[in-house]
Amino acid sequence: MSNISNNVAGVDNTFRRKFDREEYLERARERERQEEEGRSKSKAKGPPVQRKPLKHRDYEVDLESRLGKTQVVTPVAPLSQQAGYYCSVCECVVKDSANYLDHINGKKHQRALGMSMRVERASLQQVQERFEVLKKRKDLGTFTEQDLDERVLKQQLEEEERKRLRREKKKEKKEKAMEEPEIDPDVAAMMGFGGFRSSKK
Q1: Which UniProt keywords apply (predicted)?
Q2: Which of 24-33, 86-95, 137-146, 163-172 has the lowest mean pLDDT?
Q3: Average pLDDT of the chain to the nearest whole number
Q4: Are 91 and 81 in contact (CB under 8 A)?
Q5: β-pair partners for 94
Q6: 95 domain residue, yes or no
């Protein structure tokens, strides 16, 4: 067997690549330098953006203005006129009210408004002032049993008025139905029926 391996001396392997270790070491060092420069550049972007702390909305969220309305939806309409709730800050359309509220209270929307999701820490003085404001509001809103009785009486009167108006409308409708123009009996007989009224009375 050793004789066979000694006879195989003329194998041609010149087609295989020759690797130059120095060249590849130099390439590796260059790549490491570039990565290091990239890391230092990303760290030195500048100071992080300081956003204002989160604060409560000073406007009413309109969820019910288009409730029960029918709208024609076309695929070529601008975003603000498509079906759903349109956010002008983020320029997007959200399909239902629950997702719209989630979007308004979410991180992306608050960032677009320039606010972070952190709430400003209140001082003791601010909390005490807020309690005073709420106490004053509560004192103004107190009512006695007499006020409650007046409100109940007023509500009952309004309900009676509504019922009376409903009855009057019904009466007017009946009177209008009774005042239908009479049809010529000859014309009705020619057409094959006695009249336009229903058979029920």
Answers
A1: Metal-binding, Nucleus, Zinc, Zinc-finger
A2: 137-146
A3: 82
A4: no
A5: 85
A6: yes
- Evaluate whether residue 108 is within a structural domain: yes
pTM for the structure as a whole: 0.44
Residue 88 lies in a domain: yes
pLDDT higher than 70, residue 136: yes
In a domain, 94, yes or no: yes
What three-state secondary structure class fits 115?
strand
Please name every residue paired with 115 in a beta bridge, in sequence order, or none if there are none: 52
DSSP 36-71: HHHHHHHHTS-SPPPPEEE---SS----STTTT---
More confident: 8 or 34: 34
Tell me the residue ranges of DSSP E strands in the chain: 52-54, 85-87, 92-94, 115-119
Q: Which residues pair with 93 in a beta bridge?
A: 86
- Specify whether the CB–CB gap between 112 and 90 falls below 8 A: yes
pLDDT of residue 180: 64
The parent domain of residue 87 ranges over 77-118
| Cα dihedral across residues 71, 77, 83, 89: positive or negative | negative
Gap between the terminal Cα atoms of the chain: 122
